[in-house]
Amino acid sequence: MQIITLTTDNGYHDYYVAAIKGKLFQAFPAAHVIDVSHGITPFNIREAAFQLRSCFEEFPAGTIHLIGVDSEPQFEAQKERFPGILKFKEQYFICNDNGFFGSFLEEDFPDEFYLYTAIKTQPEAWRFTTKNCFIELAQRIANKEALSSFCEVSRTYKRAFDQKPAIDQLLIRGIVIHIDSFGNLITNITKSDFERFGNDIPFIIKYQKKEYFIDEISPTYNAVSQGERVAIFNSSGRLEIAINRGANAGFGGASKLFGMRIGDPVHVEFTPQGSKENIQSLF
Length: 283
Hints:
The structure is a single chain. The chain is built from 6 helices and 15 strands. The protein is of the alpha+beta class. It has 2 domains: 3-153, 3-Layer(aba) Sandwich (Rossmann fold); 166-282, Elongation Factor Tu (Ef-tu), domain 3 (Beta Barrel), CATH 2.40.30. Strands 8, 9, 10, 11, 12, 13, 14 and 15 form an 8-stranded antiparallel beta sheet that branches. The chain has a 7-stranded mixed beta sheet with strand order 2-1-3-5-4-6-7, with helices on both faces. A hairpin with a 2-residue loop joins strand 4 (83-88) and strand 5. The longest helix is centred in the middle third of the chain and has 14 residues, at 129-142.
């Protein structure tokens, strides 16, 4: 059974997702289609990359991922953008080469990468490209056609600008990169960033107002009382700031309680023994 995932910015207000799925089931009558998200902010390839990067490793080898965000090709000289096919960890990712692949791969390298330049002669695929092109490419992959038989191998792909944490001697300067449906603040700071400073070194996580700080990483949300702020490393290894059951308690989660938005700063200051005179000096 072929597994295919969909990540788009089409939403559910219109017929677009239904049209994609209808065409998919024509091509793959027995396919198992999984929706990663159709709520991506329009044209936000970084958000699409974050969502898929956070879950793709749960899928088996051979899974084909269709990413319908900013998918229309472009043929203007020096600005060309073609559909791309990435093979990575035995899975396939089909998206316009618009910066998604670089954002998705982060510091990793592709196993194989190809561009579908033949779309230049297929004007019927220039609009609604997710439906009118990507599904056909997925079908050819599923039929075991060699990628090189219908695509051009490429050693480069476009990279969107992704802000990485700035790491100083005793400080990590990060930002909020995603706010989930519970209002939890997901940052670009990772567990491995913390591990650079060693174990058992005191720290303060600072954000928004100085009275909103956290000085420990909890194993779960429920490690703190309901309504209390908490920091965890989520299943993707990213630092996440939340209010335990905050959304259910009517607070709207950490984002509303703290007045935080995507792009707002989150800093982690480490304090090895003897580096500060007292707790007040941390602020």
